[in-house]
Amino acid sequence: MMEGPAVALRAGAARIDISPPIGVQLFGYPHARRISTGVHDPLWASALVLKSGGAQCALVALDLLFLDPPTARRIRRRVAAALGVEDSAVFISCSHTHSGPVTSFLAGWAGDIAMPAPDPEFLERVSEAVVHSACEASSSMRPASLAWTAARVEGVGCNRCDPTGPSDPEVGTLAVRGQEGGIISIVMVYGMHPTVLHEDCTLVSSDFPHYARIELEERFGGSMVALYHTGPAGDQSPRYHVKSQTFAEAERLGRRLGAAVANAVAAIPAGSYRSEPLIECRLAAFDPVRRRLPEPAEAERMLAEYSSALHRLRLAGADRAAVRTAECAVFGAEAAVHLARAAKSGTLDRLLNEYAPFEIQAIRIGDCALAGLPAEIFCEYGLRIRQAAGGRAFAVSLANGHMQGYITTAEASKKGGYEAAGAVFDWRTGDVMVETAGALLESLFSPKGRSDAQTGHDSGS
After folding, report:
1. How far apart are alpha carbons 282 and 369 in whole angstroms?
2. pLDDT digits over 391-448, tens only?
3. Where are the domains of the chain?
4. Cα separation of 193 and 96, whole Å?
């Protein structure tokens, strides 16, 4: 992608309400028939469009659990066509709220009452909303400057598999301000499951990210559009930090996150803002490593073992967090049974063939970049990606689709539990994703990589 002449940054942001109608099933927790009774807070399709030096990109954040890769690709192509950019310049991710509508199929949940078929009319509405929000953001572009920072937040969540395990308190933050000084948009990347609200919630909500955005709007003005991207959250959740599964608790944690980001933005020195940031985009396919799934009978034995362990914990009066971890392990074992049957029948192969190609995306915006991965990846992988990029990149989960299940680590795979039991792909897929993302980021930041891009070797073109 050619840089073009030095042209000052222009930026615009917009959002459109994509809340589903009352009466839809809320998606996120197995075996829970959760028919929505109203909307607590709107679900948004938020877009930030940036143009600098002849290059342009669009960042889109959706308050949805996830999208399947074919749906995400269709939306990305529509946005790219509307803006006149390459597909690689459109970055779409889902917040992973568990209090939104069904938007995709999970092979491990086959037949579950919690997962009726996605509504194609709603998905088309989402697609149109994304295009409209991106176009509205583009049409509202004005002279701007931007700066990156990293907020730090404690007490919102931690590693849910092991509260002493790897976690990442840093929040990748991009602040975009207008030439007149007002904030146009703030982009947050935070690796945490938005699961304060649980099965008993029947109101549509984006969970704690809603309150993080409210905090930012109160600090910087209501016209500011905040985008929330979920980072590597496969093994991260508020489980050990929540006092209850209520909106009040979602507000407490969300405002804590929002305040940390707001304080970090307020502390950015004026001289750190860039009015001519480099924008470059990359997109590359990768080959995931399939997990050797158990035979159905073996999976059923594993389910019986996990169920017995849960029963023993309940009889012993174990604490809420420990019981929840064991409950989730049972859910994972149930998923393993469904996956084993789907693998034996060939259904899983057909589904994954429809999902291919699997893609990783990297977009450099000035001094830092976003690396988009189409899965629920464990925190460790995000930390490795950032380290490989010298701290200049933030990994985003569920970007441009969801490839089915978690990408665990070798250690988590050996230990078992919810994420490992229900995984479709081997933990080595995480290494492949780190290597692929690392190569893309290297091409964005190294002089040689940028030289290759300028001579026509951009993988996103």
Report:
1. 11
2. 999 999 999 999 999 999 999 999 999 999 999 999 999 999 999 999 999 999 987 6
3. 10-276+376-403, 296-353
4. 7
Looking at every residue in the chain, the average pLDDT score rounds to 95
Integer-rounded Cα radius of gyration of the chain: 21
- The rounded distance, in Å, linking the Cα atoms of 385 and 435 is 8
| Orientation angle between helical segments 69-83 and 347-355, nearest 10 degrees | 10
Tokens representing residue 253 in the block: 């944690």
* Residue 213 phi, psi dihedral angles, 5° rounding: -70, -40
Please, is 326 exposed, middle or buried when counting C-beta atoms within 10 Å of its C-beta (0-12, 13-18, 19+)?
buried
Among residues 197, 189, 192, the alpha carbon closest in space to that of 155 is found at: 192
Residue whose entry in the numeric block shows the structure tokens 């159905």: 296
Residues near 394 by beta carbon (within 8 Å), at least 6 away in sequence: 172, 189, 231, 368, 369, 370, 371, 382, 386
**From CA 340, how far away is CA 377, in angstroms rounded?**
22
Condensed to tens digits (0 to 9), the pLDDT of residues 169-178 reads 999 999 999 9
For 184-233, the DSSP string reads EEEEEEE-----SS-TT--EE---HHHHHHHHHHHHH-TT-EEEEEE-S-
Three-class SS of residue 318?
A: coil
Predicted TM-score (pTM) of the model is: 0.94
